[in-house]
Amino acid sequence: MSFQNPVFIPGPTNMPEALRQACYMPTIDHRSPVFGKILHPCLEGVRKVLKSDSAKIFIFPSTGTGGWETALSNCLNAGDKVLAARNGMFSHRWIDMCQRHGLDVQVVETPWGQGIPAGTYEAILKADKNHDIKVVLATHNETATGVKSDIGAIRKAMDAAGHPALLFVDGVSSIASMDFRFDEWGVDVAVTGSQKGFMLPAGLAILGFSDKAIRASDKATLPRTFFDIKDMQKGYDNNAFPYTPPVGLMNGLKLSLDMLLDEGLENVFARHHRIAEGVRKAVDAWGLELCAASPEFYSDTVSAIRTPEGFNATDIVTVAAKTYGMAFGVGLGEVAGKVFRIGHLGSLTDAMMLSGLATAEMVMVDLGLDIKLGSGVAAAQAFYRHGQASARKAA
Ligand code: PLP
């Protein structure tokens, strides 16, 4: 008999059994109204999760990376100027994709561990008198460093500069786990995927487009076929895709949205915040530090934890998998070997998180780090007990 631990990688996340069952469904005619009964609730539910009244939602058989490409290829022309900050592996990869599409990216190099500098964006946008910059990119939650950026502040910077660029936000590791305000923040394209906050396997790129972004797509000439939102919209008008949709995954998404909305978005965000705070208490008790440079950058979905100089953080991930059958995330890019990551998003409870912290602790002691067994777990327990007591009182 083989047993399975929960995973603590920052996506794909643990899948509730009901979602697994929902994905595993009999074949239906995907060009019939039966598919419309799955498709349209998905579009409506995603719009609610984005906190938008009017965003046009698109779902492609792809992943977050395909979502980036959908955003770029539908709204831009070769040679267009884009403003982006590089503060981790995922913002780096989106910049790389822009460059491969022949876009001219003005990169704001930002220390890994810090958020997007809205003030620098504002100064650059103010100096761009001819409005050559067509799009501002922002990675809401840098999964590589566990850093959250303030998207509201970026919108304010754009408005203060009186700049008409579109705002594209990568919410792959934030949407459906952390507060995301498409309308309030004036987001033009939001990108996410199915395998993190939505608790599903990878396989769906999920996007919201503002009216302004849709208008930009009328004139944009970058080549696109599979990711063409106009073709996709025509499909939706007939309860279909322009090609064969991943029906099972979308049936899973429909149920995932029901689960998230039943729990209540604010409760989902509060649960993620509480679990993340417990992890941060543990890190503190271990005497270690987060990669995120200060509390305003702390992510509620993933913590990247720095290990002492000279210690290979990747060993923690390797030994955890080999000895205890538990998955944590390795450091990526600039912070490879310097951090290990604990993913704390999706279908997760305080008690599940304690098992992850207990295991991380055992591994670090096994590897000779100067950490007291039980110290981080005790700190998290004390915090979770308090959180549960207030939740019981409120109920
Ligand atoms: N953006 C962020 C912030 C991510 O965390 C990831 C994946 O982890 C991606 C983009 C890429 O998404 P995918 O791996 O689904 O293509």
TrEMBL record:
Example GO molecular function: glycine-oxaloacetate transaminase activity
Cofactors demanded by this protein: pyridoxal 5'-phosphate
EC number(s) on file: 2.6.1.35
A family per Pfam: Aminotran_5
Domain Aminotransferase class V: 33-323
Keywords: Aminotransferase, Pyridoxal phosphate, Transferase
UniProt-recorded name of the protein: L-aspartate--glyoxylate aminotransferase BhcA
